[in-house]
């Protein structure tokens, strides 16, 4: 199931998980793999299973291992049951965290569909109101603007670039979008998902691991307009040999016959990584705005869309500064936590204690399972241990930054096909990986911040079922995961002295100095050395120069510009624009104090976030862990207690029953060019069928023909209205249930019809909303109701409009005939 999917026509998560375990058992051969899967199956089937129900009888060796997996025979040895509650050797204190719960866990409601959703996808509703709001913002996005969307993991961010590509290809067959992804695993996973979608089957991932011949074939197909979505790493997108073709595709007209690509959007997936990884680990992330700037030179109408599940204020400010450029900017936020996981936190003084607890947990954790470490070496050691003779797991894979391209692709495919039960990984695996039925995530480390922990546990339980999340970390005299977390979270910032010396070295070696309007532009050689540094530092020296330049960009002192598309520059040079001329003086105290203050503020914020996260992880029974992490990440949001962490279990706090997703309060203030000739005012329309019954389809067809792209309907009518919108031929077909147009929620700024509900109180509330829209609306607003209807003591035809009421069959004439509405 893809990220944008819904669950309406799918089996429940328990049935799907049982089917998955059954398939996996049929192909598992090792005793450890089989018994772990048997245990998972027993949990899903209520804690007991008849031996005769297994795919084959257990062997003597498997019977001998039952206690290791918390299993025992029962019912005169004809059945198996789970015995965790009787296990005196529970090294973690799992307790209620392992209690099976079949109840669906997502506490947020799905949203009603729009016509465009039904027409371009196989989904019958949106996962959340935020997904609906983001889709509406995407499809009404002004040319040359930026859209920032924050939604929980698994709530369907990828639906946005899927819809964008298909929507634009309805107009131009070569329309395409690029999606920049932070990891190869994510790019490959998106490629796999897109390959099964109508209209998007030929989407391709182009990564650093793509062989040259395959790269050439993909680029040629892209140039011909045959690749609707091109997935790229930042490094690939900024490579001059690739960039020239992106610029070519952005150009509004073909540069050569047969090159039909028309680039319309650039998406950045997991955009919060731009701030955290781009600071020092992969500085090309913070060079990405230069890509947008270069594409906008070719076509000012290119739209940028940034997607993320978590957006701390620091990342939010950085993204707006880098990506807004000269265009409009809109942010759509769910402000919605994920509470599907039963959370266990444990810390130890010695690594041997953690190792024993991890072994205990791995044998019992529901499958599929991801185990995260921070260091590549730790992942390798753990992977080897799981496969040794004592542990004997075979259905396990290792995925880190050192994993080769062929193995990466194989692991992603095998993981999707349920041929792997455990992935041992670093953060290289996981961001956005779209496998809905992952049941468990274990951190054999302490993540370097709440965002990483929250993101990575979010890999589990995307199918609305029970998830399990454990964090086992060491804080002792010989090893401290806490110290390692602080080292990672607070690294990547140069001291002021070293920063000044590096800048002086870069300026000394700068070339191509020229002024563009008021700012100095130049080319910097990233191999330039600061004084006293040996000229053999290579990648290390280059990396710190990148770190410095991205810091200066975040501080507003300079901007990294687009790189030449001809590829005639040295491999390691950046073109920049100096925004603060004092920086050209070398070591200017004021400008370096500005940079230093900015650096100190970033460092203090990172440390403060980690302080709060470490405090709750050290004492997880004192405050709700998940809520604390979410509110550190999203400080402007409020979350209730999760009901499923150590503190909530200790205090008998129940999970929330209902969580409200935000987003529908956001809209673009500038209206798109509207269809038809209706005046930008409130109009009263008399329907032929006053009850909107059998006459609803013909009414909708008439409304859409005269330019209506959005309809507000009485409660419960949205699905059939959206279906009628599809049949009417309108491309947008936005639909709002009256209950979705409440509070601060807004209409999209397109021609809108409002079907007044029969209930008097609801109609009066709707009338108030219409009055609020009257002064600010710049598009036609059609109120569909009988003119003689009385609300608040007055007839509608006396209050609602300065125009006389129009009958439904007069609308086409008012708009200038049917042709005017097309």
Automatic annotation (TrEMBL):
Domain Helicase ATP-binding positions = 138-329
Recorded hits in SMART domains, A to Z, give: DEXDc, HELICc
Membrane-spanning parts = none
Presence of the UniProt keyword Disulfide bond in the record: no
Annotated InterPro entries = DEAD/DEAH_box_helicase_dom (IPR011545), Helicase_ATP-bd (IPR014001), Helicase_C-like (IPR001650), P-loop_NTPase (IPR027417)
The alphabetical list of record keywords is: ATP-binding, DNA-binding, Helicase, Hydrolase, Isomerase, Nucleotide-binding
Supply the SUPFAM superfamilies for this chain: P-loop containing nucleoside triphosphate hydrolases
Which GO molecular function terms does the record list? helicase activity
Query: Which top-level enzyme class is recorded in the Swiss-Prot or TrEMBL entry?
Result: isomerase
Catalytic activities: Couples ATP hydrolysis with the unwinding of duplex DNA by translocating in the 3'-5' direction
- Pinpoint the Helicase C-terminal domain residues: 357-510
Is Isomerase tagged as a keyword?
yes
EC id: 5.6.2.4
Q: Which domain of life does the protein's organism represent?
A: Bacteria
Family (UniProt): Belongs to the helicase family. RecQ subfamily.
Task: Please report the name of this protein according to its UniProt entry.
Answer: DNA 3'-5' helicase
């Amino acid at each position: 199931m893809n990220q944008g999917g819904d669950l309406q026509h799918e089996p429940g998560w328990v049935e799907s998980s049982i089917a998955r375990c059954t398939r996996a058992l049929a192909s598992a051969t090792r005793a450890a793999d089989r018994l772990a899967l048997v245990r998972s199956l027993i949990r899903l089937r209520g804690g007991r299973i008849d031996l005769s129900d297994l795919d084959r009888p257990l062997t003597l060796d498997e019977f001998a291992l039952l206690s290791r997996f918390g299993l025992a025979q029962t019912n005169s040895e004809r059945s198996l049951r789970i015995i965790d509650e009787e296990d005196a050797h529970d090294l973690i204190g799992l307790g209620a965290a392992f209690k099976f719960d079949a109840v669906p866990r997502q506490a947020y409601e799905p949203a009603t569909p729009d016509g465009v959703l039904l027409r371009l996808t196989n989904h019958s509703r949106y996962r959340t109101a935020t997904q609906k709001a983001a889709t509406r913002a995407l499809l009404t996005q002004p040319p040359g603007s930026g859209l920032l969307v924050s939604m929980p993991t698994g709530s369907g961010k990828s639906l946005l670039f899927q819809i964008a590509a298909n929507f634009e290809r309805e107009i131009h067959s070569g329309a395409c979008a690029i999606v920049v992804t932070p990891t190869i695993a994510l790019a490959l996973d998106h490629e796999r998902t897109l390959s099964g979608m109508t209209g998007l089957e030929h989407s391709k991932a182009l990564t650093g691991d793509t062989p040259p011949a395959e790269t050439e074939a993909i680029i040629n197909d892209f140039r011909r307009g045959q690749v609707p979505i091109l997935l790229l790493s930042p490094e690939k997108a900024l490579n001059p040999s690739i960039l020239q073709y992106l610029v070519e595709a952005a150009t509004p007209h073909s540069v050569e016959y047969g090159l039909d690509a028309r680039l319309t959007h650039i998406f950045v997936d997991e955009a919060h990584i731009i701030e955290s990884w781009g600071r020092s680990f992969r500085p090309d992330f913070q060079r990405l705005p230069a890509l947008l700037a270069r594409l906008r030179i070719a076509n000012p109408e290119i739209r940028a869309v940034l997607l993320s599940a978590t957006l701390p204020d620091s990342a939010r400010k950085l993204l707006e500064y880098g990506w807004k450029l000269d265009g409009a900017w809109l942010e759509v936020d769910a402000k919605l936590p994920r509470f599907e996981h039963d959370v266990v936190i444990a810390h130890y003084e010695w690594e041997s204690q953690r190792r024993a607890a991890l072994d205990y947990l791995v044998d019992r954790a529901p499958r599929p399972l991801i185990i995260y470490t921070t260091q590549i070496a730790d992942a390798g050691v753990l992977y080897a241990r799981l496969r040794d003779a004592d542990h004997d797991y075979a259905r396990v894979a290792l995925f880190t930054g050192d994993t080769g391209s062929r193995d990466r692709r194989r692991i992603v495919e095998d993981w999707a096909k349920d041929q792997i039960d455990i992935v041992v990984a670093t953060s290289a695996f996981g961001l956005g990986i779209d496998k809905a039925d992952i049941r468990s995530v274990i951190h054999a480390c302490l993540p370097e911040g709440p965002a990483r922990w929250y993101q990575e546990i979010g890999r589990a339980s995307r199918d609305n079922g029970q998830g399990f999340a454990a964090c086992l970390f060491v804080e002792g005299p010989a090893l401290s995961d806490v110290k390692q977390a602080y080292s990672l979270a607070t690294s990547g910032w140069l001291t002021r002295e070293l920063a000044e010396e590096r800048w002086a070295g870069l300026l000394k070696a700068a070339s191509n100095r020229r002024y563009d309007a008021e700012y100095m532009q130049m080319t910097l050689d990233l191999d330039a050395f600061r004084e006293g540094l040996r000229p053999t530092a290579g990648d290390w020296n280059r990396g710190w120069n990148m770190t410095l330049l991205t810091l200066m960009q975040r501080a507003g002192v300079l901007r990294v510009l687009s790189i030449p598309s001809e590829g005639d520059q040295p491999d390691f040079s950046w073109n920049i624009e100096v925004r603060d001329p004092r920086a050209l003086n070398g070591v200017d105290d004021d400008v370096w104090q500005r940079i230093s203050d900015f650096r100190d503020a970033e460092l203090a914020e990172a440390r403060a976030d980690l302080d709060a996260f470490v405090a709750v992880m050290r004492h997880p029974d004192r405050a709700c862990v998940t809520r604390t992490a979410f509110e550190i990440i999203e400080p402007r949001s409020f979350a209730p207690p999760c009901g499923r962490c150590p503190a909530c279990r200790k205090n008998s706090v129940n999970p929330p029953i209902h969580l409200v997703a935000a987003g529908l309060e956001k809209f673009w203030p500038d209206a798109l060019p509207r269809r038809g000739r209706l005046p930008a005012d409130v109009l009263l329309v008399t329907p032929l069928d006053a009850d909107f019954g059998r006459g609803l389809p013909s009414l909708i067809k008439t409304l859409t023909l005269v330019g209506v792209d959005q309809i507000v309907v009485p409660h419960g009518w949205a699905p059939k209205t959206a279906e009628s919108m599809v049949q009417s031929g309108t491309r947008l077909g936005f639909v709002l249930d009256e209950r979705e147009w409440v509070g601060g929620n807004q209409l999209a700024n397109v021609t809108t019809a409002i079907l007044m509900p029969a209930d008097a109180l609801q109609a009066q509330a709707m009338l108030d909303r219409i009055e609020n829209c009257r002064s600010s609306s710049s598009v036609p607003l059609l109120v569909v109701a009988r003119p003689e209807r009385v609300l608040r003591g007055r007839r509608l035809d006396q209050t609602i409009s300065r125009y006389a009421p129009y009958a439904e069959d007069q609308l086409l004439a008012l708009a200038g005939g049917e042709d005017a509405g097309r």
